[in-house]
Amino acid sequence: MREIRCVLILWLGLAGLSGFANTAYTVRALQAPATVSDPSSSAPVDPNKAPSEFNHHMAGWALIGVGLLVLAGFLSPQLRPLRYVWPALFLLAGLFLALWSDAEIWPRGNLSWAWLLQHDQEARQHKIYALLLIAMGIVEYLRARGSLNRFWRIWAFPILAVIGAAFLLVHDHTAASGANSPEARAYLVNPALDADGHTPAVTASSPPSAMDHSAMDHSMMGMDMDHATMNHADMGHSDIDHASAMSNSSTGAPSPAHHHHMTPSMLLVEHEHFWFMVVGLGVALFKLISDSGFFRRNFVSYAWPSGMMVLGVLLVLYRE
User: Sign (positive/negative) of CA torsion 162, 130, 311, 83?
Assistant: First the structure.
């Protein structure tokens, strides 16, 4: 029990350090004065924020459950059969992430998986994480049954964990999915619905009916078009730049005169993913040492499930 307490204190200290750093960063970001030119000061609330946080929280609770069941099996011989149970939590978390991680991808949305394979980097990474979780569950179940040779029994889980941690370095929450682009129409599962699976709303840009044409006031056609023509010769350079920026904004193209702006929320997400990676690498290392028997101390066996619980806590506390 003393060794278990030491391991838990170690991991909880690391989690506390991460939580303190996140809190300090959030407070500093909120206290920063917002300027008129700051794009984040007038940005609307991202509708994907709550579902994204929910996905992280669900994965976190699953990892906490894995850690608790593994530790329970280590502490009591009567609970040893739990080693056949906790791999199912990896499977369930992976299936949930595969089916529910992205609002626009089928079955939750209306875009086929061919879209994310070719165009949507963030959704593609979510599915990779789902496959990694499913693979971990299968590997650990086979390991509990004794169906793996020595190499895969020792290396399979650490390799999968390191791959997942490495993907956190390139996981991007800032890129647009492009689900509402004209190109995405070719990937709709049901062409009668939009990318989110809803009936498309009739917009002002829809072509007017014949009755609308007949009711038009044709006297408007005689208006003086010269007054509607912009005199570019009288425009200042600042006006031209502003018009160009507005045009780029409306078409979704990046302005050549401006660099990509990282908002405090984006930087906080990057910071949180960095700590996910650090704890994930620690879990992979301790799992490798435990399964290989390289360092035969009881606390090593308790270290990796404790780290799994710490990673779960960080995911439950995740905010965007």
Answer: negative
- DSSP reduced 3-state for 105: strand
Q: Which residues pair with 243 in a beta bridge?
A: none
CB 277 within 8 A of CB 315: no
Distance separating alpha carbons of residues 315 and 52, to the nearest angstrom? 11
Taking the C-alpha atoms of residue 120 and residue 138, their distance in angstroms, rounded to an integer, is 27
Measure the CA–CA gap between 104 and 118, rounded to whole angstroms.
14
Mean of pLDDT over the chain: 73
Task: Using pLDDT thresholds of 50, 70 and 90, give the confidence band for residue 214.
Answer: very low
Quote the strand ranges of 105-193, DSSP E.
none
Rounded Cα gap, residues 99 and 92, in angstroms: 11
* Dist CA 124 CA 175 (whole Å): 12
Q: pLDDT tens digit string along 40-62?
A: 444 556 677 888 899 899 999 99
